[in-house]
Each structure stands twice: as structure tokens, then as C-alpha cells.
Amino acid sequence: MAAQRVGDPSDAAPAGARLDLLKIRDMVTPQARVLDVGCGDGELLTLLASTRGVDGRGIELSQLGVNTAVSRGLAVIQGDADSDLANYPADSFDYVILSQTLQATRNPRLVLEDMLRIGRRVIVSFPNFGHWRIRRQILLRGRMPVTENLPYEWYDTPNIHFCSIRDFVELARKLDAVIERAEALKLNGQPVQVKAPWWFWNLFGEQAVFLLRRR
Amino acid sequence: MARKQADHPDDSLVVDFGPDQPLRLDSGLDFAPLRIAYTTAGRLNADRSNAILVCHALTGDQHVTNVHPVTGRAGWWDVMVGPGRPIDTERFFVICPNVIGSCMGSSGPASTNPTTGRPYGLDFPVVTIADMVRAQAMLLDGLGIATLFAVIGGSMGGMLVQQWAAAYPSRVFSALCIASASRHSAQNIAFHEVGRQAIMADPDWHGGQYIEAGTRPTKGLAVARMAAHITYLSEGALQRKFGRNLQDRAARTFTFDADFQIESYLRHQGLSFVDRFDANSYLYVTRAMDYFDLASDHGGSLATAFRGTATRFCIASFTSDWLFPTSDSRQIVHALNAAGARVSFVEIDTDKGHDAFLLDIPELFDIVRGFIGAASRARGIA
Predict the structure, then answer these.
(1) Which of A70, A212, A162 is nearest to B348 (CA)?
(2) Hey, which of A168, B76, B110, B240 has its CA 20 to 30 A from A11?
(3) Which of B334, B348, B374 is closest, CB to CB, to A70?
(4) Looking at chain A, which residue has its C-alpha nearest residue B315?
(5) For A90, which DSSP code?
(6) Which string of b and e fits A101-112 if b means at least 16 CB within 10 Å?
(7) Which of B90, B88, B82, B95 is nearest to B140 (CA)?
(8) Percent residues over pLDDT 90 in chain B
């Protein structure tokens, strides 16, 4: 587990860094080997390389993302989490990270299984579909929710498998994974009370970050 | 033309290795004397760390950026290599050798055998991709270049890139392999065999001794090129460019003239090719590609070929390439992943087929520029 020393200059948050990425950063030990699945333009890998000295690799669907990441000096493969993870050998990374991508996979369970096989630790962050604002939109308006962090209409969204924090906890249990650490972020980016029960997280956590390992 | 270039290459540098420095071939033979023709562009820096080896494809040559002495056309990768280009000759020292077995000045079947004073013809030994790379390593030793900042190539050039990375991992800082494969597929071997049979069926081939017979199997070689050329394009691009359009006529002639534009185009491709290439070299170099199988050279496991490598890899493929489809590139990527290598991969969306690696494709330039830029920062080349 990353012991975060207060005042360590390497932990200084780069201006404008996404809060969920900083949460993930705090879960990664220095010098680790990291695979970032759905790495986009490599923002998280760059953050991890500069503040944690990690040896990072990425998988990204979009060519623009790959091009940007490669010109940043990152090793990124254009590919699809659903089909490509099967080709990675077991235990080849210290951490496999899936940041804000779980809901866009065709088979989240298989993706998570592969991640737990490839990495000794798995970090997953996702938007919580159990958040009260989403519940309110469905309840009061009777329409699929569109929020700041989920800005797509139901008919043109890349997100096909939403889950709530409680759903994810249940899936982790089915896969026999140990939840080593869990964080939920409120709308303002502040963490939900650590001592709060799951139902409270599920209602007030706008995003969640989980650190898992195999049992 | 090809015959003249074989012994006296224009606008090229040559290095000769005498009988005391034979090239050990995969077939077990020691080949000597050996000549390698090459060109360079840019300047080698003080610590000799900025050399890029560019590997040409099947019928390419050393004229990567300078005007071709036979065709008078721009170098085959003039869009990619040059001042301010993605492979920037203001920053890097580019070396491009002609592979052995070819016909533009490196030892090949059209070269004169110094012991007999006659062209080698089929007396030239069969060479492999690994033999070509070993010869290139001898050239670099001669130039005093211990490590290459990058080895770059497309198609067969990509095979040489992989062979370099597998055989000399400590000499290759980064490797860029475009539209290639770790082994030639059965379909690719089949197309090559059609080409070879076309050449050997030409009565002017004379069992490979046509130079002495004073003939050239131009018809066979042209047919070989026409068949191969189809595989370099894509169905979509052919349809877009030619469709079923007729060539300079309003109606069918009910003859076997080139009624269709595509027929006329292929005939032109075949005919212009025979001016610059030697038929026997076509046999030898296609054979080298057919024999290439990096996994089988390493106990059947491609990952083993790259085990422990510190080389930074970039693999690129094209969506419409059916000669070296993306699945071939993915095989290399999977092996490099399994070996824990530092690898990037991108599939570029284009309808231009296999030949896209030679063309002005902005996405390709972006990835090459980005990869080389990041690698040069990592290497500490200003």
C-alpha cells in the first residue's frame, strides 16, 4: 500500500489533475509495473511516471489517444479491453488500472477477471450509478440520466454497462477478490466518510475507486 | 540497367569485405568476397548515438531519400526521410543499405563473381533475412557504429527490423516496424511462387544464366510484378481509382488489348519495374521473405525471440493491408507484451492497402514523429 508522506514534493498535485486520477495515484507504490487499460491520451500514466516512477504500459481504443500517448513517450497499444487482455500473461504487472472505462466494456466481468489474472493488484474507478442525483432523475423525470460526468444521451453513449458501488462490491465478491481499499468521491470531489456504511457510499459517492487483489 | 548497377552502383557508397571476412550464411556457407552498397544522409554526432538504420522492402534499395539513379524519381521514402521530415536528417544520421541478394550494388545474383569473372546467376547462394541483417551488422562495424538509435522499416524492411531487434538487442535502442509480420503467411508465399514461376517460365530466363545468354526475362518479371502489385493495393482503392473504366476508348474492342484502365495501369507497373530490377534478384529476395519465421528460429515462441529486450518498439499496421494484415502485427505485439517489452502499437485507418507505408499518410507521420521524438528524449539526443 502506498504510504503517502505529507509534504513529499513528488506527491504534489499537478494543476488541473483529475481528482479520481490522484486517488488512483495514491494507491500505486513507487517503481511499480502498471498497465492502464483505456489509458486515453496517457494522462494517468504520465502522472504515475512523473510522481511514482512507474514503468507504465497502456491500452487505448482511439488512434488519437494512442498518437498523443506515444508522442509523450509512453508505450501504448491500440486495442480493446474486451479482446486484448486475454493475450497478457498472468502476473505480468503489479497494477492493472481501469479508470472510468468499466462501464464502456462489453463484458465487465471478463475484463475484471482478466485484470485480476494479469495484475497482482487491480484498481478500478467508475461513475456510481447509484448516486442520489441519478436516482432522482430516473425517479422524477422518468428518463435516462444525463449528468456532468455522464454527459451522453442514452442512444449515443459509449457506456453500456453501468453499475452502482453496491453492484461492484457484489461483482468483486463473486470473483473472490479482496477489496483492499475503497474510496468514493462526492460531487465536489471530496471523499465520502471512510467509516460510512455501503448504502451511504452508494447514495452519496459520485465516483468510486477500488483497489482489489486476488484472494 | 540493373546489371550495370549491380557492379557499379551510381550515387552510392560501397564497402567491400575480402575473403578474410566471410559472411556466415544460415545455409552453412561462408560467402566472400562481399560488397554492400549504401547511402547516408545527415551527420553522425560526436558520441555516435544518432544513427538510424532504414531497411528497404522487397524491391526497394538504398536510395531512400536521394534521386534514384535509374528511374530519376525521388527516393522511395522521400516523404518520410529528410530535413524536417519525421525521420529528420538534420537531427539523425540515416544509413540505408541495399540488402544482399538484391541488384543495386550489394552482392547478388547479378553481381560479377570475382573468381569466375562471370555473373553469379543461380550460383549465388540462397540468403535469408538473418543473413541480410548479419551483413548490415558488418557494414555498421566497418562504419564504427556500435549502437543504432533506431532501426526502421516497412514490409520486408519490418522483417529486418525484427531480426535486428532479436539478434542484436543491445545494439538497437528503438525499433519501428510498419506493415510487417514475424512470418510470411501461406498466402504470401503463394503469391511469391506465382511470381517466381512467371520468371522461370520466360524462355529468356535460360535457367538463370540469361545475362551470359544476352537476354532478359522481362516478360516473366513484369508478370511477377503485376501479380505482386495487386497485393500491395486494396480492393477499395482499386475500385475507387479505376473501377471498370475503359482506357482511352469508348467501347470494348473485343480483343485482348488493355481495354480496362486497371489493365493498362498494371502493364505500366510491370514494364517500368523491369528497367530497374533483376529477375534473379526477385527470386532470391522473395525466397528470403518466404523463409522468414522468427518464432520457429526461437523454438516456436516469438516471445522468446524478444525475451529480456530493452528495445523500445513501435508497431504500425493499416486497416486495408491484406498482404500483411493487422492480425500479423498484433502477433508481434502480443509476443512483445509477453516478453515484457516496451511496445506501442497503432492500426492506421486507410484504404490505400499495403503500399500505404510508402505514401503520404499523416497518421503514420504523426506516430513516427511522436515515437522517434520520445525515444530521442529518452536516449538523450538533443
Answers:
(1) A70
(2) A168
(3) B374
(4) A77
(5) T
(6) bbbbbeebeebb
(7) B95
(8) 98
